[in-house]
Design a protein that fits this description.
The protein is α/β, with parallel strands linked by helices. It is built from twelve helices and 14 strands. It has a single domain, classed as 3-Layer(aba) Sandwich (Rossmann fold), CATH 3.40.50.720. It has helices at residues 9-18, 49-56, 72-82, 119-138, 167-174, 194-204, 225-236, 247-253, 260-268, 277-282, 292-305, 314-334, and strands at 24-27, 40-43, 64-66, 89-92, 106-107, 142-147, 149-151, 179-182, 188-189, 191-193, 213-217, 223-224, 242-245, 273-274. The radius of gyration is 21 Å and the shape is globular.
Length: 335
């Protein structure tokens, strides 16, 4: 696994290690102390190809899983490194690659890939196209996986927050302040607990039905964004005060580096319902079993018990107050 300690991949690492698989992680070692003892770690920069080849020696692998590949050059590097030494190369793409808005809100693996609002998604599409060309022309054994909003105990999954994560939104809830929710809160969204995602992902490893194919892995539960925020409030034992602001307005007035055009208009603002029947045919018995209200209680408990995860964001907090005041003033003027 290239990566292996992130939001999605940490659950896969745990489950594979507990099942007795021989697992190697290749990463920079920033969370090496969290890795199970029976997992072998190759600590290096993946872009240092000479160092990678030294660390891997002459080993071959049943599967190589790429969790931190974001641009085509990184995929091209992986092809150079692993051609002929893996039976399967699993590339983690993104459900944000699907067309926004799609022709139908029901999304399958056959939904058109196109996202004019988010460069991140367009790069994922380019990586997929490169890999599928390698599969068709040269037999490179690729499997593409498209997660949507997958979360773990390290962070509460919310839609409108700054670069330092969602803690400041949680803090506003706890302080009784209004929290900004994009749109009118009625668009549907899917959130998937990382342990559930891992079950589906592992079922694709070594699976002959997965070669040359793309799969999306999500929960079957859909919630409105208002319900998402209410679940967080319930976990905190507070009443949430949602303050609704149009996604286009948020994208226009937020700092460019927050990229709300991509994160909202190119992703979270659009109602989508994912059809995972293709995955369930390839991995019989797969079912996400963690409801969001259950998963987010685990998140909140973990974060409240770990102060190092409570990263405050005064810039985002002040911006929220400013946006809310501006919209209230506009209401007053136009009455």
């Amino acid at each position: 696994m290239i990566g292996g300690t992130g939001t999605i991949s940490s659950a896969i690492t745990r489950q594979l290690s507990e099942s007795g698989h021989e697992l190697w992680l290749l990463n920079r070692g920033t969370r090496k102390n969290e890795v199970p003892a029976n997992v072998r770690q190759v600590i290096t920069d993946i872009d240092d190809e000479e160092s990678v080849l030294t660390g891997l020696a002459s080993e071959t692998f049943d599967a190589v899983c790429e969790f931190i590949g974001f641009i085509p050059a990184q995929v091209e590097r992986d092809i150079r490194l692993f051609r002929g030494r893996t039976r399967q190369y699993v590339y983690i793409s993104s459900a944000s690659a699907y067309n926004k808005p799609a022709a139908s809100h029901v999304i399958t693996e056959g939904t058109t890939l196109a996202n004019p609002h988010w460069e991140y998604s367009r790069n994922k599409i380019a990586c997929e196209e490169l890999l599928m060309h390698e599969y068709r022309e040269n037999g490179f054994p690729v499997t593409i996986v498209r997660p949507s909003h997958t979360y773990c105990e390290r962070g509460v999954p919310l839609s409108v927050h700054g670069l330092k994560g969602s803690w400041q939104v949680v803090k506003r809830m706890m302080e009784g302040k209004p929290v900004i929710v994009h749109g009118d809160g009625s668009s549907l969204w899917t959130l998937t607990w990382n342990e559930d995602f891992a079950h589906g992902f592992i079922g694709l490893l070594g699976n002959p039905k997965a070669i040359g194919e793309a799969f999306q892995i999500m929960s079957d539960e859909q919630l409105t964004w208002t319900q998402v925020y209410e679940c967080v409030g319930n976990a905190l034992h507070v009443t949430v005060k949602p303050y609704y602001v149009a996604s286009e307005f948020l994208a226009a007035v937020a700092p460019a580096e927050w990229d709300f055009e991509g994160n909202l208009i190119g992703d979270k603002a659009v109602t989508v319902c994912f059809d995972c029947s293709k995955l369930k045919r390839a991995v019989p018995g797969f079912q996400a079993t963690t409801r969001f209200d259950e998963g987010v209680r685990r998140c909140v408990k973990h974060i409240l018990e770990h102060p190092e995860l409570q990263v405050e964001d005064s810039e985002f907090d002040a911006w929220c107050d400013k946006v809310i005041a501006a919209q209230e003033e506009a209401k007053r003027i136009l009455k």
